[in-house]
Amino acid sequence: MNKIKVGVIGVGYLGKHHAAKYAAMADVELVGVADINLTRAKEIAALYGTRAFDDYHAMLPMVDAVSIVTPTRQHFEVANTCLEYGIDILLEKPMTTTLAEADALVAKAEACNRILQVGHIEQFNPAVLAMEQYLTTPVFIEAQRIHSYNPRGADVDVVLDLMIHDLDIILSIVPSPIKTIHAVGIPVVTGSSDIANVRIIFENGCTANLTVSRISKTNVRKLRIFQPKSYISLDYGKKEIMVIEHLPERESNNMPKETIHHFAFTENDALETELRSFILNVRDRSAPKVGGNEGRRALKTALHIIEQMKNFILEHQELLG
Ligand code: NAD
What we know:
This protein is of the alpha/beta class.
């Protein structure tokens, strides 16, 4: 089998892990890593036995596919150049900072017949994959993503930084357009919102309540889904799910009898599953699980939420001090 020639552009915190995963794949050749910080590129290249580039353009003639793991504000320029060069791309989330850029990338990938996968890694979390078989009709969804502060990612709003993961999952499991959004968020330590609470009501009546913070003392990443005859509780961090299904029979106290399923996935690595899936798509030219349209859908909702939060801040100057 031919090895797929891959490069990683941007090898900071997350790009290093992309490089490590590719270097360990038998059917992939990690041709190089590129970073404007050449010292960092050389350090990562030495770890994984590959070449270092300070300008990613020099690497493009040598690769079939790349992971783009630069800060979000650089995503569009780098992704656009790679697609123009005829290279398949896995672009980290959020795919871009504007809808116009996302549209341009989706159109370019289609015109060039190239794969554009967006790095919504939670879709490859084994707990999320296991949840899919228990989904019926989500009626109420509660998502909580609370992190301690990390300056990486703080170049964008907490909605683009963290909430976009939950938006992507929720939009993929509720088969209905959004009817209304009510969003509140405030800046605390950065220039943009650091905590936010959002209520999304879908046209079919499903309601999702999302809370995010990137300035917490604890780390929690949970999703709870209430359905007419079942309840799913998912812990992204622990990679666990619990599903309670109601049976037609009743207990003596008139509560429905129930079955409880519990799954924990300690071995599974979501990044490896995500990159494996990308390489498979590159090899057999199949559509990615999270393509440009899915990345755009999450971005569109995130940008709408950010606009509402800006208005909230403008209208509540007195309250916020
Ligand atoms: P980081 O700051 O640690 O790394 C970014 C690297 O890109 C740096 O080494 C920087 O020198 C390099 N860089 C900047 N511009 C470049 C360019 N034009 N060409 C080549 N290299 C360039 O950031 P990070 O935390 O690794 O995040 C990178 C991206 O990954 C962001 O978009 C972030 O949102 C995303 N991310 C996604 C997840 C996830 O869960 N999927 C988690 C963390 C980060």
